[in-house]
Structures are given as C-alpha cells and as structure tokens.
Amino acid sequence: MTDRSNQLGEFGFAGDDKVVPFQVDGLDVRGRAVQLGQLLNSILDRHAYPPAVARLLAEAIVLTVLIGTSLKFEGKFVVQTKSDGPVDLLVCDFATPENVRAYARFDEERLAESLAAGKSSPTDLLGNGVLAFTIDQGGFMQPYQGIVPLDGSSLEDIAGFYFRQSEQIPTRVRLAVAELFDRDGDGKPRHTWRAGGILVQFLPEAPERMGHQDLPGDGDDNGDYATPEHDNWTEARMMADTIDGDELTDPLIGTERLLFRLFHERGVRAYTPQPIYDRCSCSRDKIKGVLSGFSAEEITASVEDGAVSVTCEFCSTTYKYEPQELMPA
Fold it and tell me: SUPFAM superfamilies under this entry (predicted)?
C-alpha cells in the first residue's frame, strides 16, 4: 500500500465505493472504512426491495466489503443469514479483490404483517437463526466457515464476536444506512441509498499487549479476555463508539475526514483506497454447465414457451437455452 498524507487538503478524497485502509500507530490499531453510494443503489434498485429489507441488506453489504477487502488471496468471502423471520435469507458474496454481489429473500405477506404490527427491527425481521462467514480460497482448499447465532444482537456486535472467537483479535465494527430524498438536475424527486462503515482492530506489534482469550472448559466460554483490556484498545474502541451514523453516510464528510476527526491526535495514516464494484460472477456458460447435469426428463419439465430460462438471483440477468443444447449426449 502507498502511504498518503493525512493533512486534509493535500490529496483527493476517496469518495464513494472505495475502501480506505488506515493505521493508527499511536494506538496499535489498523482498520478499513468505506462509504457506499452508486454501487449500493445498483444492487438495491434492481430488486426493488422494500425499505426495511433494503436496510438489512445494505448493512450486510458494508460488513462484507470491510472484511472481504482484507483477504490477501484469490477467493471469496460470503456473509449469509439463514433464519425463520420474514426476511429468511441475506447473501453477500465478495470475490477478491474488488467484486461484490448480494440479494435478499423475504416473504411479502409476513413482512407486511410484521411492519403493520410495528415490528421493524433487524431482530424482528430476521428472527432466530444463524449468520455464517465463509472464506473460500478455491482450488483444493477446504472452505472455512464461522457460524454465529442470530440472538438479537446487531450485525456490528455479531462481527465483533466473530473476530473475537475465530481470530482472537479485538475488533469494533460500526455500520450505518441512510435513505435520502432529494431532486435530480431536472428538479424531479429522487430517492437514493447510502451506507458506510468502519472496522477497527487492535493489532499490536508487542504480543504481550494483546489480551489472551480464555481456554475452553475453564468455566468461562463466552469469549471474553482473561487479561484486562489494554488502554490503547480501550481508547480506540471508545473513539469508534463516538461515531454517529450520519457521519458514516454523509458524503460531505468523506472517509478520510472521518478518520482524521477520530484519530488525528494519535497519528492516523490513510492508505491508497481500493475500489469495489457491483459485478456478478454468473455467465451463460457457467449456468449452462449446471443445467447440463440435469436429466432429459428434468430439462423437458423445465421448458416454458420453447426454452429453458434461468434468472440469476444476484444480478437478475435471465439466460435462455434451447432444450436441445442442454440434452445429455
């Protein structure tokens, strides 16, 4: 990464849809921050999600991007919920180094009933279930999956718990989503979404500064640290907790300016921003390969109006095939 000056005004801000890695040497802290604009709207608009569902998926996208951009190998990072609520599935798929796609599944009738009853919190909409973090390096590598229960905690808290349990790294995540109403250049009403987030981790050079996690079976399996929290991490965590949701989504503040506000007294350094894109990995050939594994009877049963049609759940692209090109040889 290329070091960039932290003096405001001496460089151009990253802007939307770019992850900004940063480091605070004075606190032994590293992390990443992002604001999402057009990328987020592209994903949400193509599905026309109800606002309550869009907010849930937007948070999951920010979380996926913050974690996925830290991967140093070619592969995928997937965040997925599976639960019994009106919104029973969220899937966010990040393909290194820069491509993200996402979709949500929900029951329209149950969602309407929940909202009419005033039950609109993430806990109400997701219900009981699990949140899975999957790292897939491809090839012959076995995917790694960490599973965390959906117990009413926010995605912010669940992410912190995941890192504490799987990586033993003290981590604080902040996420925010904003729904904006304004007018375009022609004066017509316009509705857009924005989202932002920051991931802060305590990664000291001296290992003795890191708290040691309790060993399983010692009578305390809740993942808390047996040694007292280091003062540097306490300070960094408290600074992250002061962030207002509006700051994370406000385009006039910008990611670097927010980092400067938080950590300038401790010497924050912002690095070259990493762009991310709304790109799906589906293709006509990939889907044809899947369909080619179907039996002749299954292909025949799938024919409608003379063709077999498959629509990608992520990007909504529809692929059509002649039955003959899918039939087993």
Answer: Hsp33 domain, HSP33 redox switch-like
How far apart are the C-alpha atoms of 255 and 322, rounded to whole Å? 49
DSSP secondary structure of 217-271: TSS--S--BSSPPPHHHHHHHHHHHT--HHHHH-TTT-HHHHHHHHHGGG-EEEE
- Take residue 207 and report the two structure tokens written for it: 């290992």
Q: What is the pLDDT of residue 284?
A: 94
99: part of which helix (H) or strand (E)? strand 99-106
Nearest 5°: the CA angle 57, 58, 60 is 65
Q: Which of 263, 271, 279 has the alpha carbon at shortest distance from 312?
A: 279
Q: Which residues of the chain have a pLDDT value below 50?
A: 1-9, 212-226
* Angle value at C-alpha 277, between 100 and 263, nearest 5 degrees: 90
Nearest to 304 by CA among 324, 320, 315: 320
Would you state the torsion angle of the CA atoms of residues 71, 1, 26, 259, taken in this order, to the nearest 10 degrees? -80
Q: Tell me the domain boundaries of the chain.
A: 18-207+230-278, 284-325
Q: Give the pair of three-digit tokens for residue 116.
A: 């009419």
Sign, Cα dihedral of 95, 96, 97, 102: positive
pTM strictly above 0.85? yes
Q: Find the distance separating the first CA and the last CA of the chain, reported in whole Å.
A: 51
Residue 202 DSSP class: E
What pLDDT shows up at residue 329? 66
> Which CATH superfamily, name and number, covers 18-207+230-278?
Hsp33 domain (3.55.30.10)
CA distances from 275 to 20, 34, 258, 272 (A): 9, 10, 18, 10
pLDDT per position as a tens digit, 147-200: 999 988 889 999 988 888 888 899 999 999 999 888 888 888 888 999 999 999
